[in-house]
């Protein structure tokens, strides 16, 4: 074997020359010389010294065993290594036979038109190594057993020929590319090997792709198709690219392109198109990703069995992918695509069906997703005119994400969530005129403020077809703003998860047959009821991390001794749970419903003797409990959480008291057990109870609770709403506030009155809402101590159907700037001269500024300076005049 060019050959040749001289002086020279290779001693290596013709000696220099000298002849296959060096271009302008040719990186060998370079195989080494560029205008013939390694670029130009004998081979390594611009080359099997990083580029119309061994990370690129598809598509490729910008035809691949172990790229089809299959049963397997970056590709036209399996992602950034092609057989095929990674589209069109006839079950494409669906642009649609449609199935076991930040979903594109799959929608919206179906065992996680609706154009699902939400499915509300469940939520569901710190409100009654997960945030039931379980045989289960139920919570109870039956109820701010443990089983099962009423307790018969203590004070808060559905009998213990109960200085002295209803006297059912917890979160215990009634918290004189509220009323009085409340005692009571709401959830201060401080007599308070809202008005009474602690009463509801007809004489033109720092400028307009008062309250309803002003007819401007010691935040500006109150929310920076 001849040695390679460079310092290594010089060392080896000098070594053998010295050895040869020594042996000539020895008696054994003739015997040993027979063992020295004639290749080493006789072969001459060549390298280019200039650009020029192969058959010109000025192009070359040769190695004489010691140094490189000007060549006296041109290289052939009888010579050693032939190297075309960086920066030199050598042109074969006459037929030549050679081997051991190396084209260095940056070097170029060009075979002229009509001339032939024959690559011989006189040695066991590599006969042609291309690290630079080889351009074939003429003919390159590779003799039997010859080998070619390409790490640079080989271009077979139009009119060129490249023949490989049956036993020869060509290997394309990383960085190597063979670009065929002519069909005149050998494509037989067992010759071509494309290794990782190697590329074969078919830049010619028609012809055939070589039958090659396509190793991991190799690539085949089809770039030259105009009107004829290439042959030999029925191979196992690794990466495959179709990027024929000059294509004008519709090419039917006839189900030949089946196996792509890596990625498939559809970049361009020019003005033409490609069809993967027509009438054949067809399966395409893509081991990596599918990239649709341009052009038009159809899955099928008619085949009844067409599957495209994508192990990685489907990524569309332009062009059109269509499930069926209307231009053949009316597009009646029914392809199925399985995407095991993510399906994402940012531009272009994904057209699931173009079917134009009306045979049922034809023209239907199924897209089975096992990853996420991400749409930031483009269009997912079907353009069939009759029965054609598309189905998107979420089919992964576990969570899948539907993220839609742009683009459109149009026409009959149906969405189905399979059993075992949970789709996280966030605030994304599924649209189109198709159906939306959540199957039993599936799950839907919603972030829309409107939840899910049955038909309205609000909520996470706005498809205009049929919306079907299974009662056997799982529902999660995990938005970042306050949510409602929506009227699409079934009345009975499998599992319900509340994971929204801003809270969730029930639109209607809901029964949870599986598990109720309270992860974060409150559930507000309003006039509805949240029910856990559906019968004494299906009790459901509760898993609570945080949050609770504001309103009615019902649980089914079995006829069994059961501990820790938790009712996590409370107010919008405080956790007021009650926990039952049946020490003696009920005689028959049924249900218990609990609500917490944040109102002041009546003072009837409070001088109760409980053991050695006398209960003298009643706290704020009422736990209403009731049984139904046949529940009777049993003995139970209660653990009651009374978070932020005002006036508590010794929580251990608290007692649980009970009464049948608001007309009954308080009593001490069962036996007292010492309270635990803390002053801020006392847990009051009672054992041996037998009646489900109203429960409250009382205490001996060790605790002083703020007020005893006898009543709080809101009644329509002409064009106003009269607001009245009565206290029988007050302790450290600074002032009252009345708050109003239009939805029973979000309240704003309407008015405030000073309290009596400390009083032991009955006091009546009265005021008006001079400007009731049309429809329902919700009112609650707040009470604030001198230390800033406050509580609220139960909510009163008034249906005010009249509108005020008389115009206010005074109105606010502007209050600003908003946000403000220290100064406020007030512009008001009046029809007459009158007196008014300006009041500013902080977020805790504390009055921080008050001033009386005289208003003249016309426009008036007033300047207000706010002290610097008030913190940034929300404040409320009130202008009070002639029985009216105008309020504006302000932000201080």
What does this structure look like?
The protein is mainly beta and 893 residues long. The longest helix has 18 residues, at 7-24. It has three helices and 82 strands. The chain has a 26-stranded parallel beta sheet that branches. Strands 48, 49, 51, 52, 54, 56, 59, 62, 63, 65 and 68 form an eleven-stranded mixed beta sheet that branches. Strands 4-3-1-5-8-11-14-17-19-21 form a ten-stranded mixed beta sheet, with no helix packed on it.
What distinguishing features does this structure have?
893 residues, mainly beta, 26-stranded parallel sheet, 11-stranded mixed sheet, 3 helices, 82 strands, 3% helix, 49% strand, disordered N terminus
Q: Secondary-structure blueprint of this entry?
A:
Blueprint: H1 7-24, H2 29-33, H3 38-42, E1 46-48, E2 52-53, E3 60-63, E4 68-70, E5 82-84, E6 89-92, E7 96-98, E8 101-103, E9 108-111, E10 116-119, E11 128-130, E12 133-136, E13 139-142, E14 147-150, E15 153-156, E16 161-164, E17 169-172, E18 177-180, E19 192-194, E20 199-202, E21 212-214, E22 219-222, E23 236-237, E24 239-243, E25 250-252, E26 259-260, E27 264-268, E28 273-275, E29 282-286, E30 290-292, E31 296-300, E32 306-310, E33 314-316, E34 320-324, E35 336-339, E36 343-345, E37 349-351, E38 364-369, E39 373-381, E40 389-394, E41 398-409, E42 413-417, E43 421-424, E44 436-438, E45 443-446, E46 467-469, E47 474-477, E48 483-484, E49 492-493, E50 495-499, E51 504-505, E52 510-512, E53 515-520, E54 523-532, E55 541-544, E56 549-557, E57 565-567, E58 578-584, E59 590-600, E60 608-610, E61 613-615, E62 617-618, E63 620-628, E64 635-641, E65 655-659, E66 671-677, E67 682-689, E68 694-699, E69 707-717, E70 720-741, E71 747-759, E72 763-769, E73 775-785, E74 790-792, E75 796-800, E76 810-816, E77 823-830, ...
Parallel strand pairs: 1-5, 2-6, 5-8, 6-9, 7-10, 8-11, 9-12, 10-13, 11-14, 12-15, 13-16, 14-17, 15-18, 17-19, 18-20, 19-21, 20-22, 22-24, 23-26, 24-27, 25-28, 26-29, 27-30, 28-31, 29-32, 30-33, 31-34, 32-35, 33-36, 34-37, 35-38, 36-39, 37-39, 38-40, 39-41, 40-42, 41-43, 42-44, 43-45, 44-46, ...
Antiparallel strand pairs: 1-3, 3-4, 56-59, 57-58, 58-64, 59-63, 60-61, 62-68, 63-68, 64-67, 65-68, 66-67, 69-70, 70-71, 70-72, 70-73, 73-74, 73-75, 76-77, 77-80, 78-79, 78-81, 81-82
């Amino acid at each position: 074997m001849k040695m390679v060019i460079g310092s290594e050959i010089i060392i080896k040749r000098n070594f053998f020359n010295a050895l040869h001289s020594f042996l000539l002086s020895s008696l054994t020279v003739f015997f040993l010389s027979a063992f020295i290779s004639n290749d080493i001693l006789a072969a001459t290596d060549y390298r280019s010294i200039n650009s020029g013709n192969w058959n010109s000696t000025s192009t070359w220099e040769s190695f004489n065993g010691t140094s490189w000298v000007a060549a006296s002849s041109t290289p052939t296959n009888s010579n050693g290594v032939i190297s075309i060096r960086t920066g030199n271009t050598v042109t074969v302008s006459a037929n030549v036979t050679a081997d051991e040719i190396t084209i260095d990186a940056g070097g170029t060998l060009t075979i002229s038109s009509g001339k032939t370079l024959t690559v011989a195989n006189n040695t066991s080494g590599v006969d042609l190594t291309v690290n630079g560029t080889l351009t074939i205008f003429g003919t390159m013939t590779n003799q039997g057993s010859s080998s070619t390694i390409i790490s640079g670029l080989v271009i077979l130009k139009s009119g060129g020929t490249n023949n490989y004998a049956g036993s020869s081979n060509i290997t394309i390594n990383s960085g190597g590319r063979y670009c065929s611009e002519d069909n005149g080359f050998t494509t037989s099997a067992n010759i071509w090997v494309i290794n990782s990083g190697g590329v074969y580029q078919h830049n010619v119309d028609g012809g055939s792709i070589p039958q090659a061994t396509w190793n991991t990370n190799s690539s085949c690129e089809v770039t030259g198709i105009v009107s004829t598809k290439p042959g030999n598509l029925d191979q196992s490729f690794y990466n495959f690219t179709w990027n024929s910008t000059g294509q004008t035809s519709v090419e039917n691949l006839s189900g030949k392109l089946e196996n792509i172990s890596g990625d498939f790229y559809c970049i361009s089809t020019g003005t033409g198109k490609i069809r993967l299959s027509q009438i054949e049963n067809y399966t395409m397997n893509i081991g990596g990703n599918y990239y649709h970056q341009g052009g038009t590709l159809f899955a099928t036209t008619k085949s009844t069995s067409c599957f495209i399996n994508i192990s990685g992602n489907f990524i569309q950034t332009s062009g059109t992918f269509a499930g069926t092609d209307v231009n053949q057989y009316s597009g009646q095929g029914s392809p199925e695509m399985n995407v095991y990674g993510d399906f994402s589209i940012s531009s272009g069109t994904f057209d699931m069906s173009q079917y134009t006839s009306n045979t049922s079950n034809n023209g239907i494409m199924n897209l089975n997703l096992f990853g996420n669906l991400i749409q930031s642009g483009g269009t997912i649609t079907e353009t069939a005119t009759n029965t054609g449609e598309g189905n998107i199935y979420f089919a992964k076991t576990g969570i899948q994400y539907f993220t839609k930040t742009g683009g459109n979903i149009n026409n009959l594109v149906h969405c189905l969530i399979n059993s075992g799959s949970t789709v996280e929608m966030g605030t994304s919206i599924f649209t189109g005129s198709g159906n939306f179906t959540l199957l039993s065992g599936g799950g839907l996680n919603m972030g829309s403020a409107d939840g899910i609706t049955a038909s309205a154009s609000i909520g996470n699902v706005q498809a205009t077809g049929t919306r079907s939400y299974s009662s056997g499915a799982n529902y999660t509300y995990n938005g970042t703003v306050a949510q409602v469940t929506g009227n699409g939520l079934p009345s009975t569901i499998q599992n319900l998860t509340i994971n929204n710190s801003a809270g969730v409100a029930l639109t209607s009654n809901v029964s949870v047959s599986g598990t109720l997960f309270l992860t974060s945030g409150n559930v507000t039931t309003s006039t509805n009821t949240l029910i856990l379980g559906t019968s004494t045989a299906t009790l459901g289960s509760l898993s609570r991390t945080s949050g609770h139920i504001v309103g009615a919570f019902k649980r089914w109870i079995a006829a069994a001794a059961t501990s820790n039956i938790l009712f996590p109820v409370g107010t919008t701010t405080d956790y007021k749970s009650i926990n039952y443990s049946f020490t003696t089983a009920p005689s028959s099962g049924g249900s218990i419903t609990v609500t917490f009423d944040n109102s002041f307790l009546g003072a009837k018969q409070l001088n109760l003797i409980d053991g050695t203590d006398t209960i003298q004070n009643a706290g704020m808060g009422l736990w209403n409990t009731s049984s139904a559905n046949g529940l009777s009998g049993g003995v139970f213990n209660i653990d009651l959480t009374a978070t932020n109960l005002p006036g508590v200085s010794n929580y251990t002295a608290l007692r649980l008291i009970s009464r049948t209803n608001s007309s009954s006297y308080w009593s001490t059912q069962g036996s007292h057990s010492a309270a635990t917890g803390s002053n801020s979160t006392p847990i009051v215990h009672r054992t041996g109870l037998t009646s489900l009634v109203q429960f409250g918290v009382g205490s001996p004189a060790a605790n002083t609770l703020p007020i005893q509220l006898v009543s709080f009323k809101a009644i329509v009085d002409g064009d106003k709403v009269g607001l009245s409340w009565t206290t029988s005692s007050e302790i450290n009571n600074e002032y009252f506030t009345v708050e109003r709401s239009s939805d029973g959830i979000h309240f704003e201060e309407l008015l405030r009155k000073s309290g009596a401080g400390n009083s032991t007599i009955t006091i009546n308070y009265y005021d008006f809402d001079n400007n009731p809202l049309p429809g329902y008005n919700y009112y609650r009474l707040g009470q604030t101590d001198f230390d800033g602690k406050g509580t609220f009463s139960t909510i009163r509801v008034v249906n005010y159907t009249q509108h005020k007809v008389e115009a206010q004489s005074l109105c606010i033109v502007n209050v600003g700037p908003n946000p403000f720092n220290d100064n406020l400028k007030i512009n008001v307009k009046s029809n007459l001269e009158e007196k008014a008062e300006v009041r500013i309250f902080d977020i805790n309803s504390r009055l921080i500024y008050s001033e009386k002003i005289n208003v003249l007819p016309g426009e008036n401007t007033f300047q207000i300076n706010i002290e610097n010691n008030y913190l940034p935040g929300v404040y409320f500006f009130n202008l009070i005049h002639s029985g009216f109150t105008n309020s504006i929310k302000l932000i201080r920076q």
